[in-house]
Amino acid sequence: MREFLVEITTTVPEGTPQEEVDARRAAEAVRAKELAATGNLARLWRPVGERRSVGVWRAADEAELHEKVLGTLPLHAWMTFVVTPLEAHPNDPGRADSTR
Predict the structure, then answer these.
(1) What pLDDT, on a 0 to 100 scale, did the predictor assign at position 96?
(2) Environment class of 21 (CB within 10 Å of its CB; exposed 0-12, middle 13-18, buried 19+)
(3) Is the pLDDT of residue 94 over 60?
């Protein structure tokens, strides 16, 4: 699987009932746990003081990432994504083959 850095900004449409927002956010938490269990969601952060998230996601390719991973998020219709494909860096201290 390839890794992708994904920045997600969620904008709730004006006039959306709070009950719908709460229901979708609860479903989003469940789906995130499922995607973590399958290895598609590796890490997820929220920058301090911001209402966006940044994460490392995994999929076979960018098409699969959009269609079968990000596209399954309950908040998907309210989200915008900035996707950056990643590759290993030779100086990454977390690389399995690195010599430290």
Answers:
(1) 73
(2) middle
(3) yes
